[in-house]
Structures are given as structure tokens and as C-alpha cells.
Amino acid sequence: MTDLLSKFDPLIAEHAGLLSAGIRDPFGIVMDKVLSPTEAIIKGQHTILLGTYNYMGMTFDPDVVAAGQAAIRDYGAGTTGSRVLNGTYQTHKECEEALKDFYGMSHAMVFSTGYQANLGMVSTLAGKGDFIILDADSHASIYDGCKMSNADIVRFRHNDAADLEKRLKRLPPEAGKLVVLEGVYSMLGDIAPLPELVAIAKAHGAMLLVDEAHGMGFFGPNGRGVYEEQGVADDVDFVVGTFSKSVGTVGGFCVSNHPKFEILRLVCRPYTFTASLPPAVVASAATSIRKLMTAHDKRARLWEATRRLHGGLKARGFKLATETPESAIVSVLMPDQETTALMWSTLIELGVYVNMSRPPATPAGVFLLRCSICALHSDAQIDTVLGKFEQAAQMANLALHEPA
Amino acid sequence: MTDRAGVYARIIELIEPLNAKKVALTEATTFAGDMEMDSLTVMDLVASMEDEWDILIPLNMLPDLETIGQVADAVHGLVTKKG
């Protein structure tokens, strides 16, 4: 018998090597208690959470929690069914109504996760003979959607409008084309130059899908995302998003004004062939989405806290992935796997949780310590984090640069 | 250089800087197995070949292209088809 898991031996060895240096497992964190959107107890230690994508701090919002409690009481713990059979409750329709209102669009479809929303939309929109043109740094869910479709897959250089145009020009003019973009790219925290990319895509007759997973809640006058902020809403055919970031729970969605959109419920396999979200989740999501529509103060606060962290790290000589804070993700560039792991481990011992990211999840083979900021992070918490970063850099022998 | 030999020679030149393991490059050399290239590097290589010959190599073709020889055949075929 061939052991099917032996193909993972190199990874098993690498992971073991990492841990043998005595550091904590970056991929094995357990939160014993979650105290708030910004604090948890990890291994008995009070820890500041700076890697949760909980941008708007809605996880403990009293209205959001109350909506979930009421729904679990009134509708039970789960639906035990597909959206197209017995798994659509009043709560699911209300959640889709909230999305339609939030985005000002005529259709909304709620999936069980954000991953499935991308998987489903990308694989269903483009079929045999069609082309999917995606940014090289696209999220795994987009790549997997491409794999699941029978379309031809074309990749263009990250955020490079000229490269996108060059590749679109090589495609048969009459073929169906779907260009897939993200508002915020979550590894480096950089945003897309959507007006240029969208104009080129439209000029070549492509339909456009924009993933706003990391932009929803705090970009644009209504918090719809980078596409709203950059003024390209009229040219975007589909917006995909998630409930597991700013909304503060779990789930995914797609919104659109396409007149034939509703048929997708019957043909999109990751929507049809899985159980729907529990009533409590969609009720919490609907309440959160409606609150996010007018969360202007929180948005302002999120940007303020982000600038404080970005500026503070830069002033202390850390190398950051973006020159200025472009989103609520601040990524610290690290030299190699060993230093990254040691630095990450030191930070967690000091009571700061960030994400450790490494290839192939990261583009261009870079190692990152990735911070995502929450509107509820206080200035005092950010300052504590900055001090711990400096301390950890010393302990991990990370060379800091003279600030420019 | 759009004949098979020319395409192969140019592909070798494009691979050389990415050949971190410095393995000998032949028709039968595999990208994942012999060169231990990760998927991102392979996709970047594909982009450079697309630009070199102004062709389209859809990513979904990649699972069938394991060796340098197979890639050379595919690229040569695409270049010929383009005319």
C-alpha cells in the first residue's frame, strides 16, 4: 500500500524543524477565552489580538449578539438543509435584504462561507470556452474556483494594468471573459488601481467580479468597498464578500444587478450542495450589516488606529509592505523563515497575536508578520503593540532600519 | 526562433535563472520533481514564455506539462498555430 500522506513528508519535516527550535506553533494557536474583539486569553496569558480581520469590531456588538440569540431561540440551532431545499428561513431572506440595501443592488445570494462564494461564483460564471483573467496575487478561493470551472485561466501580473491589457489582447474577441479582481489584497494589504483595471477589462468586453472581503465596512461613503471609494461601481458586474471580517460572523455572499442573477441559485454547486448557515449566524450578520451602513465614526477610528500602527512601526525602523497604510492590514516584511518564526513566537509570548505568513500563501516568496487592525483598538493598545514589536525585534535579532 | 529547437533553447534560457537547485536541464527534466519549482515560480515562468512568443498558455494546461520537453512541444504548437 502506498501511503497517500507520504507526499507531505517534506512539509512535516519542515514544520517539525520549526518547532524543534523551541518556538510556539504559529498555526496551532488556541484561544482559551475571547474577552473582546481586541483581547483574548491564550495559554493563560492576556493577549492583544492584532490578526483577526475583525476590522469593525462587530463580534461582541450587543445588537448583533442579541439578534443571534433571538434567532437560535426562535428558529433552532441549524437548518440541516441546502438553501434550495429546506435551508432558507426568513432569517436568510432578511440577511439578503440587508445586503441588497447595503450595496444598493437588486440581487444578493448568501453562501455558507466566503471561500464558497468565490468558489461558486468564479466556477459557475465561466464555463468551457470562456476565459477567466485573474490577478496573480488572487486569494486561494479564486484560484480554486478557476480550477473547478472548465474555463481557460489567464493570470496577469499583480495590479499591473498594462500586463492585463496585453493578456486580454491575446484572447479571442468573441469569447466570454471574466476578469477577477480584489479591492484589498490581504497579504501585503495593498489596494487595486481599479479604475485603470476596470476600464481595460470593459474595453475588451469582459465581465467583472470584484472581491471586497477586506474592503467591506470602511472603504467608500457607504462602506461598500474599494470599488465604491474609487468610483467604479457602475462597471462592476459582481461583488463578492464575506461575513467573517467586518461583519463579524461567518458566511459569504455575492451581490449584483444582473437581471438573470437568480438562476445562479440553481446552477452554482457550492451554493446548492451544502447546508445553509445557521439562523443565528444570518440574523447576526443582517443586524451587523445594517449597523455598518452608518458606522461612520468607527470607520474614521479604524483609519486612525491603522495610521498610528503603520506610522509607529515605520518610525521604529520596521520594513513595511506598503509605503503608506492602504488598508486596515499592515504587513511587516521579514528576512527569512527562521527570523519570522522567532519574531512571531516572541510576540505571542509578549502577549501580541499577529499572523505569520509565508510562501506559497504570500506573493514573491516573502515572509510577513501581518497585522489587521480593529476599530476598537485603543491608542493605548496600539502603543503597547509598538513597544512589544520593538522588544521582540531585539530578542529575535531582527535588524531595524534607520527611519527615512 | 520559432522552430522546435529554437523554442527549446530559449525555454532553457528562461528557466536557467529559476533553476535554484542547479539541476541539469534536459528534455526529460521535470519542473516539480527535479527542479522542485513551486507553483508560483512555474506561473511566473509561464508568463515570461507567453510574453516571449506573444501566445496564451492557459494555467489549466499546466497539469499536463511536467517536463521541459512537454512545455517545448506545447509552446511550439501554440507558436505554429498562431502562424
TrEMBL record, chain A:
- In this entry, which stretches build a coiled coil? none
> Aminotransferase class I/classII large domain location, by residue?
47-388
**Domain of life the protein comes from:** Bacteria
Q: Which InterPro entries match?
A: Aminotrans_II_pyridoxalP_BS, Aminotransferase_I/II_large, AON_synthase_class-II, PyrdxlP-dep_Trfase, PyrdxlP-dep_Trfase_major, PyrdxlP-dep_Trfase_small
Query: PROSITE patterns annotated for this entry?
Result: AA_TRANSFER_CLASS_2
- Which cofactors must be present for this protein to function? pyridoxal 5'-phosphate
Keyword list, A-Z: Pyridoxal phosphate, Transferase
Q: Does the keyword Transferase apply?
A: yes
- Reply yes or no: does the keyword Acetylation apply: no
A single MF term (Gene Ontology): pyridoxal phosphate binding
Similarity comment: Belongs to the class-II pyridoxal-phosphate-dependent aminotransferase family.
The name on file for this protein is: 8-amino-7-oxononanoate synthase
Report the source organism: Sandarakinorhabdus cyanobacteriorum
From TrEMBL, chain B:
> What top-level branch of life does the organism fall under?
Bacteria
InterPro entries given in the database record: ACP-like_sf, PP-bd_ACP
One Pfam family assigned to this protein is PP-binding
Matches recorded under SUPFAM superfamilies:
ACP-like
User: Which PROSITE patterns does the protein's record reference?
Assistant: CARRIER
Q: Which residue numbers delimit the Carrier domain? A: 2-79
| Protein name, UniProt field | Phosphopantetheine-binding protein
Look up and give the organism this protein is from. Sandarakinorhabdus cyanobacteriorum
